[in-house]
Amino acid sequence: MGAVAEPMPALSVLAPLTTPDFTTLSRYVRIYSDAVGLRDWEFEIMHRPPDEALAFVKVDVHELRKYAALWFCLDFRRLAAEFQRHCIVHELVHVHIAEMGFVFRSTREDLGRIHFEALDRSYLRAEEKAVDALTGVIAPALPVIDWCA
Length: 149
Ligand SMILES: [Zn+2]
What we know:
Largest sheet: 3 strands, mixed
Number of strands: 3
Number of domains: 1
Distance between the termini: 37 Å
Shape: globular
Radius of gyration: 16 Å
Bound molecules: zinc ion
CATH architecture: 2-Layer Sandwich
Strand order of the largest sheet: 1-3-2
Helix content: 40-55%
CATH class: Alpha Beta
Structural class: mainly alpha
């Protein structure tokens, strides 16, 4: 909150993810998802960046199937190795918690827009804190991405 975004580098200095990079990401998403108890989930790596300009990684969880899609920022490889791992594990922990969000969001009509939006902000902040705390415990035990393997 309140952080000023760094100016975006010119596109020519970005190092967009390549097809082999997406293959590596798929392999590590599988390794990490198995490690956090999502062995029976399907993950699709989208080959375009997330809509949110400041997101490093984004996950969308299907409400009815054990399926989630992941988006990676264009220059994901330039992030520090430990931060790459943290970002992915963070999104995978969100997968475990997504059902609570679905239940909460189903109350939108009953609560009314003003009450819902106020609670939604608190809910999202609490979810991020919980997800990040759990990620901080889980991620260091997992390998960082080896882009050359
Ligand atoms: Zn998050």
